[in-house]
Queue: 4 jobs
Job 1
Amino acid sequence: MDSYDVVVLGGGSAGEALAGGLAQAGRAVALVEALRVGGECPYVACMPSKALLRSAEARHQAHELPRLGGASVAPTLDSNDVGYRAAVARRDEIAEHRDDSEAAKSLESKGVTVVRGRGRVSAPGVLVVGDRQLGWTDLVVATGSYPVRPDLPGLDDVPTWTSDEALAAQDRPRSLLVLGAGAVGSELAQAHVRFGVEVTLVESGPQPLGREESSIAAALADVLRQEGVELLLGVEVERFERTTEGRAKAHLSDGSTREAERVLLAVGRTPATEDLGLEVLGVERGDKGQLMVDGQCRVADHVYAAGDVTGVAPYTHAASYQARVLGDVLLGQERTADYRAMPRAVYTDPPVASVGVDAKTAKDDGIDAVTAVMDLADVARTATEGSAGGRLVLTADRRRGVLIGAAAIGPRADEWLSEATVAIRAEVPLAVLVDVVHPFPTFGQAYEPALRQLAEQTAAAPR
């Protein structure tokens, strides 16, 4: 049996970063991965989806050239099929054709032992991978998550995609029924409708993007509908049937039906924590299958977890953050994770970005919250960009006089919302934030009137 200081079970964003960092610090590290080193993000999630979205955006912008003064008439484009094939070729190039060999080599060059296969704990301090036994002093579970497949009658009889499959597929469907208007469903709905796909987006909740700030979610709903997505809110699919043409026919809770060539399942992901042998270590999973961690990402003595398996925040940047925290902990440093300012982004056009909490959530938690809203139509950069505007909503703790939440929809909101992320994480007083000067003309200027409103509302608050 080969023994290691640390065995990392799962080579996704968290596992890859953690294993490489620990090995470079002189620890003996083995990383166990059954599929791809790097996980979902580089190959069938973040990178290919953003590549496809950018191609769809470029195609959409070509039609906007006359309005923006870039041409007197719109250029003639290839057909949607030809354009989609070009977008897929670029997508696959950016996703390295789903080949993880370079990522694995990079880890090995840092001193990590990469073990291919599915690992399972057989005894305290022992992980089995096939016929190989790996001894460990510390175990890190970073096995990620997998797409939820809803239990719906007839679903197994119709053509479906998970988001992973959609982002590896080569052909453009003529029609697409998307289940779930979260980040993934909204992004892929817009990407496909911009390539001429007939898209229906079904969401059981009252708005897209789950519990995000309601006015921001409503603005995204308007964008999707204006582009041709049929967005059905407060509606559920009750059952499916396969038509004689092989299409999927969905029977909806409002009594209507919809047909599509393909069904895209985007109703969430589940932590991949089953059948890992963790019960041998006395580890119990949470109600959603997640591993419960403390501020040091510890699950139990000498057992840690990072990434989607923790259920803390299902983002690549969250996994990377946990990997940094855990790396410091395993190297003997004092470190505690702080998730108050974990940003969220939806890469539609325009993008949606948020951080912290909205006023409703804050008030439910007993915080005396106040809000301020800024319409991006009132920002000079909106005119020069020729954009449709957007919205910024800021939330502050009235008693403490600090920002606790921000949400926005607008051009490059995923970039300029970082200002709010820093302010929330560092608990910068509103009195300081209102004194910050932004260059003219930028979208960052949207902060200034909203912050002044918050400062006025908190000035008289009892301390």
Job 2
Amino acid sequence: MGVWRPLKRIITAFPVPVTFASRMPDFQNTLDFARAQDAADPVRAFRDEFHFPQQDGRPVIYFSGNSLGLQPKGCAAALKQELDDWAALGVEGHLKAMHPWYSYHEELTAMTARLVGAKESEVVVMNQLTSNLHFLMVSFYRPSGKRKKILTEQRPFPSDTYAFASQISFHGGDPDNDLIEVQPRAGEHTLRTEDIIARINELGDELALVCFGGVNFYTGQAFDMAAITKATHNVGAIAGFDLAHAAGNLHLALHEWGVDFAAWCTYKYLNSGPGSVAGAFVHEQHHGKGLPLFAGWWGHDKHERFNMERTFKPMHTAEAWQVSNAPVFSMAVHRVALEQFDRAGIGNLRAKSERLTGYLAFVINEVAKATGAKLETITPAYPTQRGCQLSIVAHGKGKDLFHAITAKGVVADWREPNVIRVAPVPLYNSFEEVFRFGEILQTALA
């Protein structure tokens, strides 16, 4: 407990990332240990700001924030404010609402930039994730001559595969030849950074775009985005990332890493509701450079937007990639969620996450030893190579085990063919929940 308690003072004084790897005390698979960790948790108060689903009159153990985050309690009031303004003001709400609708997305910019490690001019909240990937690839996937291949990880989220393949086909290419997936080594579940870089170098001037997930949805592996970006640029290609499982989960530095573009959803770790508005990043080096893009009036110079001119004049920020005005209701919820992250600090949340997921890995291992079950965690063991999520293969148990823990109040998630994904989220999950998950898992296995 000696490390965890002084940490509260450190975090209060210096809201920067803190690591525990070198001084982490031994874990204990006991309720007293888990409760002591929660008592010393400097961000524990945020748990009370969320609604938890109930089962048999008790909150569930909600480890599915990697699919859909819990609802912040402030969402209802935020939505009601916009509904009340609409009722009272009608169209005048665009300029006279408490949060004027015309510029609503601008209220989200600074918080978004801090969350993903960007300049304010480099981010915009708009559309949904796959839509944003397509809009960005209009500008950044420009196959020419032999430089036409897209490189990604083996088994990215299927929507990414569909988007990449359709973009290749749209440009007259052949997805079977031009969409390349880096494979893990034989007998391994995850990718080695050196193998990714070697594949980038091997493709060389055939490579147009490298686009990985920041965190792979299936294995939970977090990729070295800085190293991938550098290697990609060294061969003259563009580096982009799908941050669906990384935004709000990892400590990102998109501007510093030199990433060309990125897109993310907000309904997973960012707790902004099903199908909520998404986000996009475009590095400032690409602003105002005349890149081809699909134009819409919300990307037009905002100072002249209502002149209704015939010729498109794009803004010299990431806002140029907007095509439509703000979806205010989903942005109202997203604003509540972003304010929570701003108050907590992504560095502080990441510090807790490394410890919380580390404790989960320890508890799973203890359960395996106690029961003799073969529980294989395919997520990397080192904290910098993963986010919140652990992906577990229960050999010989499979979906029956998943159904058993679900019946006992654990909300996790199953991914075919044989993975149970569990993701303790630092904003609202606790060490005691990890301990109780271990109890449920052990009972189910026994």
Job 3
Amino acid sequence: MFRFSNPEYLFLLLAIPAFVGLFWLSIRKQKNWIKSFGSYHTVLKLIPGHSFIRYWTKFTIASVAYVLIILSLAGPQVGAKLTEVKRKGMEMIIALDVSNSMLAQDIKPSRIERAKQAISQLIDRFSNDRIGLVVFAGDAYIQLPVTNDYASAKLFLSAINPGMVTKQGTAIGTAIELAANSFSPTSNTGKVIVVISDGENHIDDPLEAAKMAADNGISIYTIGIGSPNGAPIPIGDNKDFLKDNEGKVVITRLDEETLTKIAITANGKYVRASNTQFGLLPLYEALKMVERKEFKDKIYSEFNEQYQYILAIAIALLILEIVILDRKTTLLSKVNLFGNKKNQEVI
């Protein structure tokens, strides 16, 4: 397993575009200064030791060294020892609707983005429980198998978007079946599926899938996201809305009846999300009542530091950057490091 012990340092990498922009402006200013004395190529011949290629080479080397130094400060580590530990928890798979209707903005900033925010907050409340992610529209796919790696769960969660499932529709039944078959086969702890959807345009039989899950000891909790009055579905840059074959704007509405029946069938609970409350508190209180049993898990208990190798390369690059002078010298005039020949036009 690879990780950074101090990932906050990685934000320093955001300064690189600014460095590139400032350096480019500096080079441009120098070229304009040379042009002020006359013909650009003629003036360059009068200063044969001058080389913009050297400037760019030194800057590139220094930039790479900067990146490596930041990576070393972030503390790269590689897992070196797996230890078996005992945990007491449950397994939960969140099935998130990613159909186009989830782009509607009756829940701000949009149904899909608000759902992702809520899931992230829900993950922060767990400690020993295992979590998995399933995404669905007209079909369903596993986004993340059940794991106790919450950092990975958030990473996979951030990558979810409506474009990842091309087949449109709301296959809630398919998502429930996939989630029910994705729990750890040897685990006897409590198993829960949380379905987050507007429930509209379901193209299969979600109640039959919910009954099958309940027969296997799996509870299903549903969160309805959207409003019964509905909202249009933005497309493109949100300046237009999805229209039907007759040119009328499509209005997507929350189907609470279906989601409520799914929860009742699978011994769960239905919660309706709103702009003020997503329904996390009642959901979390319900999840605390789910039976949690002890299970074995393997985690990395020791990590080897890797920063020293990256830092050594960075130092070597900085030394090379210092050795490469801004101008040619008599000592280095015979070194054809940049492919310039005698009397060749310097660029």
Job 4
Amino acid sequence: MLLSEILASKIKVYAFVGPSGTGKSYRAQMVARDKNTHFIIDDGLLIKDNEVIAGKSAKKAPTKIETVKKALFFEDSEKEAIVKAIKKYRPQSILILGTSDGMVQKIAANLGLPEISEIIYITDVATEQEMQTAKRIRMTEGKHVIPVPTFEIKKDFSGYLLDPLQIFKSKGKGNKPYISEKSIIRPTFSYMGKFTISDNVFRQIVEYLAIKAPSIHKIMKLRVDSFGEGVRIYMEVTIVYGYNVVDGLKLFKEKVCKEIGKLTSMNVEEIEVVARNIFVPDKEEE
């Protein structure tokens, strides 16, 4: 699936090039704004303003080699998803990020885009000191940046998010201030090691929320299974008489998903809440 010649000819392609870890993704939106483009291709993702509209982050790949392959769109399925989105949104221009001239040219060619009209280099927008600082953080802390808000990538990076929401303020071209949201993650292939969250942590969160829920009298049974990037929860509860069972359980489930996501950056892959009993308060308790 390639872009039609008519559509491709109308797209102006820019590239933003610099060595890995020098801060390209951190400054991508600034460069895109300077070039009056709303679309960015970065590490397997097609981003429109602050929204991921197609692709899967290459930083989620299990190895460095797989990361490069995904960033270059070697697989037809990954390539087709991006091309389909480009056809849908029909952008006037696109900014491609890469570590070398050859890489961005390869990405453009694989997606059927026209030749790159202009290449901006990281040295054009960042000082040597800023690039060295970015490299040091990459090497010592394993931190990578994705130029979109956390809610856009949480599903793919549950458990790998380091800073849920970053607001970056700086000066753009002509000293125009701008604000862009970014997410700091540690890729799957990071050498910094893994971390785990005990099932007991999720259990305690759920139990605390149940105590606070007016429609739930008590938890009768609770099972939490954590795996890789998410958790599955099964629980049986006693409902307080007078509350709508369906609405009460739905509200409780939404609260559990929200709080676990906020406190642990993990996805709740599945949650099942079964009402087993009804508790009728005494008149004195009422």
